């Protein structure tokens, strides 16, 4: 980032404006993209991104010049037409929405490429740079282009700020929004319009082909870091703005490198990092949680086995060897040894030359697990009419996740039972 700032400080005002314009376009697209992702409309954004190309080409063919306002209007019209086409195909035929999106995307983009090829062979000297709409180019954002697209980007951000609560409500609970009298249809129409505008202003930086990535990737990555919409929007906008600045930096320092692919590539790296390293929802966090749960289940199974071995005699301080534990319950040897070591360190079992025995606290914990197991077996037989010889496996899993609140509820439903379906005593609560 310091290198980028030094680079900007050495350039003229136009270069700085272009870079800041790329940042603004990227951030505004990411903000609108958050609502697109939450409303499960990601593929629609992709269709609109490809559908704006024929609008850009038609606007140029009709006027013969690259007026940014005219190009914006043309791309907005065809973007809207693509949404209308998707809606008509979905409602008037048996074609599903995903199929309709694929049809509209390919047809509109194909027409756009056809128009662009025609323009390239027309000999119009003003066509120079028009092909940048395919992959984007920060260098093409100059003068009037920057002011026009920048103004639209600011309008997008202000619209989201002013209608944040309404957009949040229709994104999470459409039925409640209708119940309290919100103009849901108008709000959906406005949000769709903002999505089209976000695509229109963003194609100058990343191009038609990759615009959907600019719209969706920051929001998808930010979703891994938080469950709050406000924070998600800030993270997505910050991430996208950084990538926009980095992509513009690469485009300026290496003119042969198009802006769009670089912005999307950096965004992709940040997204992959988020998917893996996010503290609660990332793959690493989920793996560590699953491993912790598996180890906890192993320790509870060991405690339960020691309790069952001693249940008939009532001598819970009796020590049992590793082989005796294995004979009672088949456990992976290495994991069982690790579990015994951890339980010993926690003071739940006591190691002696004869083997391992439950301590008083270990007995209470084992008794809790056995109690939950037998309560659940009884619940399955009495309320779900499951045969008593088919309830053990299910109880083996559920016993590790039942909370004290559910345990109390089970007791009340079963009228404080003393025996399970196999007429085995249910231990009392400690």
From TrEMBL:
Name of this protein: Zinc ABC transporter permease
Spans traversing the lipid bilayer: 20-38, 43-63, 69-89, 101-119, 146-164, 233-256, 262-289
Keyword Transmembrane helix: yes
Keyword set includes NAD: no
Membrane topology according to the record: Multi-pass membrane protein
GO biological process, one term: transmembrane transport
MF-aspect GO terms: DNA-binding transcription factor activity; protein dimerization activity; transition metal ion binding
Keywords: Cell membrane, Membrane, Transmembrane, Transmembrane helix, Transport
Domain Iron dependent repressor metal binding and dimerisation: 359-428
Chief localization: membrane
Organism: Rufibacter radiotolerans
Superkingdom to which the source organism belongs: Bacteria
Coiled coil: none
Family: Belongs to the ABC-3 integral membrane protein family.
InterPro entries, per database record: ABC_BtuC-like, ABC_TroCD, Fe_dep_repressor, Fe_dep_repressor_sf, Iron_dep_repressor, WH-like_DNA-bd_sf
């Amino acid at each position: 980032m310091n290198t980028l700032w030094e680079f900007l400080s050495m350039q003229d005002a136009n270069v700085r404006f272009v870079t800041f314009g790329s940042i603004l376009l990227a951030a505004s697209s990411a903000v609108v993209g958050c609502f697109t992702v939450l409303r499960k409309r990601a593929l629609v954004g992709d269709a609109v991104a490809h559908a704006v190309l024929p609008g850009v080409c038609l606007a140029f063919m009709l006027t013969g010049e690259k007026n940014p306002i005219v190009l914006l209007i043309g791309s907005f019209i065809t973007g809207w037409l693509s949404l209308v086409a998707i809606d008509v195909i979905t409602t008037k035929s048996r074609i599903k929405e995903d199929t309709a999106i694929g049809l509209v995307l390919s047809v509109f983009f194909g027409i756009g490429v056809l128009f662009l090829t025609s323009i390239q062979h027309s000999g119009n000297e003003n066509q120079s740079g028009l092909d940048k709409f395919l992959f984007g180019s920060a260098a093409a954002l100059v003068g009037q282009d920057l002011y026009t697209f920048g103004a639209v980007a600011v309008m997008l951000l202000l619209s989201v700020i002013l209608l944040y609560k309404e957009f949040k409500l229709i994104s999470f609970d459409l039925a409640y929004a209708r119940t309290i009298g919100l103009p849901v249809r108008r709000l959906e129409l406005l949000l769709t319009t903002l999505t089209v505008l976000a695509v229109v202003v963003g194609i100058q930086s990343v191009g038609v082909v990759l615009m959907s990535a600019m719209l969706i990737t920051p929001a998808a990555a930010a979703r891994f870091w938080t469950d709050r919409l406000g924070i998600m929007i800030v993270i997505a906008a910050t991430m996208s703005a950084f990538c926009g600045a980095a992509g513009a930096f690469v485009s300026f320092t290496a003119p042969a490198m198009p802006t769009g692919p670089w912005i999307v590539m950096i965004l992709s790296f940040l997204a992959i990092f988020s998917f893996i390293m996010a503290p609660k929802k990332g793959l690493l966090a989920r793996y560590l949680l699953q491993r912790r749960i598996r180890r906890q289940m192993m320790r509870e199974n060991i405690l339960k086995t020691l309790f069952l071995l001693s249940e008939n005699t009532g001598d819970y301080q009796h020590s049992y060897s590793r082989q005796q534990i294995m004979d009672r319950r088949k456990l992976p040897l290495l994991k069982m040894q690790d579990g015994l070591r951890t339980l010993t360190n926690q003071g739940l079992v006591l190691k002696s030359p004869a083997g391992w025995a439950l301590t008083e606290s270990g007995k209470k914990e084992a008794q809790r697990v056995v109690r939950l197991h037998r309560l659940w077996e009884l619940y399955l037989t009495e309320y779900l009419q499951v045969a008593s010889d088919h309830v053990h496996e299910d109880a083996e899993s559920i016993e590790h996740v039942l909370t004290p609140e559910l345990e109390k509820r089970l007791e009340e439903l079963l009228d404080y039972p003393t025996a399970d379906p196999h007429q085995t005593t249910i231990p009392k609560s400690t």
